[in-house]
Structures are given as structure tokens and as C-alpha cells.
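mind reviewing these C-alpha cells:
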Amino acid sequence: MSEPARNLPQLLVQAKRWFEDALLASMQAAGERPVTVPQAAVFATLDEEGTSISELARRVGVTRQTAHQAVRSLIGMGLLEQVPDPASGRSSLVRATAEGARAHQRALATIAVIEGVLAERIGAATATALRQALAAPWGEPPLVEAP
């Protein structure tokens, strides 16, 4: 029995998993502390000066509780810290520690190598076209009627 053709959203999810698997395994093989996909996503969306947990949740597309759990575990690992928000006496911001910033820089360098591997496998022109297609403005999601 043949597998049905996958639609574009399924292919995008598969591609995202490929990158996540490569990054997390490479980082762990290099001696970095193992992190989960949600923890890595929190790290990838942090602003250098700090980001609120609510904003992190919005950027990652998870609940505030899920973002909070990821942040708490990363604080426990010494990769993030929570500091008072200078713009609000009642809020706090999450930012990378020195160790977290070092690990994040290593992750960015690792992603660049993984992208290079992908370009070797699918061709540089195809990898460039893929990047351009994903970076192009798609506009608002359409509201369509099912056929």
C-alpha cells in the first residue's frame, strides 16, 4: 500500500523536525546540556534585553503555562534568568545568562552548519529558493470555502 502524498503543512512540519533533531542531537554530542524542543524554541525567541513570559508564549505559539515551565527548567539549568522589568515594577523579563548566551551562539553556529548540509543534499540553488519562499511575505491567512 502506497503512502498518500503529504500536503505542504505536513512537509513543513517534517522539515522543522529534521532541523530540530539535527540541532538537538548535535548540541548534545558536543557536550551541551540536553534541552527539549519547547526549551529550544523559547531560547530562539528571546530578545537580548529580555522578554516577558507572555510574549515568549505568543512567539512560540504555546500557552503561558507551557512557556513558564520551559523557562523555569532553563533557569534551573543556569541558562536563563528572570530579572525585574525596568518598564514595569510588577513584571519581570527572562534573559539568557552568560552560559545561556554561549550555548545560544553555539546553537546558531550549528544551525549554519546544518543549513550547509541541507544545501549539499538538495542543492544550493534549491536551498536558496526554499529560504526565499519561506521568507517572502505571504500576507494574512486566507479564509476559503471548502470545495
User: Anything to note?
Assistant: The radius of gyration is 18 Å. The mean pLDDT is 94. Helices lie at 8-29, 37-45, 53-60, 64-76, 98-122, 124-135.
